[in-house]
Every structure is written in structure tokens, then in C-alpha cells.
Amino acid sequence: MTRLLPSGAGSLLTGAALACAALAGTAQAAHAASAAPRVAGAAAQVTGAVPAGAAAAPVDLRTVRLPWFWPNNYLYDISAAAPDSVWIAGVQGELIIPGPIPGTGTSLPGNPVVRRWNGTGWQEYPLRGYSGNGSMTNVTAVSPNDVWVSGTRYVNGTAASPYLARHTGSGFDPVAPPEGVRGAGVRALPGGLFFTGEVGGEARIFRRSGDAWTPYPPTGLRSHALHARTPDDVWIFGEVGASTGTVGTPTARHWNGTAWQTTPLPAFQSRYVTFTGAYALGPDDVWTVGIDRVSGDPEGSVFLLHWDGATWSRVAAPAGINEAGDMARDGTGALWVATHLIGTPNRPGLMRNAGQGWELVPTPAVSGQQNVLMRDLAAVPTSGKVWLMGSGSIGGPIVMTDG
Question: What is the pTM assigned to this prediction?
């Protein structure tokens, strides 16, 4: 799944990961969504975390060797459509020219990274119509043969324009983004293919309709997380009243097909709240996850909220974690969130809700690493397998899977 990444002061964040001309809400996707069992929101709301003593089945993760990248490389997004169609996006070869004062300098953009895991190795495809330097911040797979990427192009170190492209089999062909948009974020959701960006200083959301982009009314949010169950059942999470250098009030808004409606949230311990993921299983079964940080405290507390169709309720997150990434659903109907373990930081943090509540899933230690932070994950829609993406205390990006 993708996370919405920052493209400006009023833009959607992606994560990745916000993890989009064909809609994800095709008959095939709709059939898959209806066939997979729903996570029992009401049960999870009562139990919160799985009761003590209940042992979660471990996940046998293995590290997937990445291709060679130029130094100063970063991965921003991951998406999976099938075991042999797993995609990563990022940048390589960024340069920093030191300034006269320690800690200052100028950053020069690198070159975009887009790769596909084809079951045995990583495959590269041309980005047609791309020139200059820049990065790919989003990749989203509607299906194995319908994949979209978005990012930013730079000319002479200055942001020139967003880049949006669709994979057509032999490479990526550029697609015109919505007119006047700054920034670029694309995401395939059950409700369709969505594009997020900034127009006239406002964060905006668009949905792909045929060969055009249909805009939603402005949300009024500086947005963090987005999920759409249908075109008329869209949830967005972020903050109201934020400006450059300040934070706003945590807010959730729902598009009901006619207007954006604000749904009151439980109180937070601070205003330093980041929503990192969300997933709508039904009109009365919606989850969101994020971090609540007290000012000056680098370690935050993970929160989970559940919507029952009338109100939001706080659900206890498993103990021993202090970070959260995006939320994804696998082919069995289970929800997954990447996180960070406090007591054993050399092991990837991973929590799951398969209908009985949220639980930490045992994972193996990553060889040679003292601290591992998985920032994003992708769940394979045809199975219960997951892919994790993050970084460690040594070296560059890390990608792991149990597939």
C-alpha cells in the first residue's frame, strides 16, 4: 500500500505512504472485496489488542536483495498486485554540497527509481517522457498489468512539474495530471484510482473517470491519510487550521456522495498527531492508525481508532511499539500495519487484525541490524502474504517478505 507523501504545505502526505484509467473498483476488484471476509470491527473494538497469552502465529520474513543503486538512495513506496508483481519507487544518487556552516548545504536531486519484483528478481522499465532529475514518491498497482507511478521532475535543481505515468507492458507512458496541480500522489483504492495534489494552495482529491480526472470539492484539510471504499464513501484524515510551521486540529472527514462531513474524534494527548493509514471495510467499519506525539518527545504513542457508523472509539494498540505505517488488507481479509518494536528494535514491527483484535506478529531479527523501522507495507491481494519496506541502522533501504 502506498502512503501519501508531502508535496507542499497543503498537500497530502503517502506515506507513502497517499498506498491510481482503469478503476480499482472494477467487477473483478469488487468480487475480490466481497469474497474476502471482513475484519470484525465490533469485536476488535471490544477486545482491542488480543488478550495476553494468545500467541500470534509468526511470520517467516526474509530479506529480499535489492538491485544496485547509486549512493544516497531511498525508497518511498511499495505496492503489490500479485506475487510476481511487487513494485517499489524512490530515488538514487542524491548529492549534498556542504555549506560553510556544519549541518548546512545544498541538496541536488537524484534519479528516479521504479522496479518490479517478477518472482525471481528486480526488473526495470523505461519512464517515457521523463527528463531531468527527480524522484518517484508513489507507485500503485491496480492489477499486475495496470500500474501507476507519480513523482516530481527537477530542472536545474528547481521543481518543474509533477510526473504521472501508467505502465503499459513495456514501460511507463506519461499521463496528464489534473490541470494546475502541484505535487503528485496516486493511489489505487477499492473505490477507484485516486490522485492527490495541491491546486491554488489547497489540497485536492481527484478520481479517474475514463480518461479524465473528476475532482472532489476541497476538503479543507492538510491531509495525512486517505481511503475510499466506493466513489461516494471516501474518508480523509488530517488537520484543520494548520499553516507553515504550525500544527492544526486532528480531523476526520467523510464524503457521502454529496458533501464532506466532519466526524468528531476522541481526544488526543497533544495536537502533534499524524494519521499514517486508514481502511474502510464497510460504512460502519472503518479503521485509522497513527502517532500521537507530545511536543519535544521524539517517541510517540500509537493510536488506533474505529468507526462503527455513528462514533469513533479508541482501541488499545499492542504494547511495546512507538511508530506506525500505512494500513493494508490482504487476500484473507486481515488488516496489517507496519510498526517499530521498542524492546527488540532489530526485529521488524508488524501488527495484524484478522477479526479477533490487533496483535503483534512475531518476526525474525534482521541480520547485521541493531534497529529496524518498517515504514510501509503492501499486502498481496491474492493471498495472506505481505511485503515490508523500511530502513535499518546500517546501510540503505530494506525490503522483506514472507512470500
Answer: 0.84
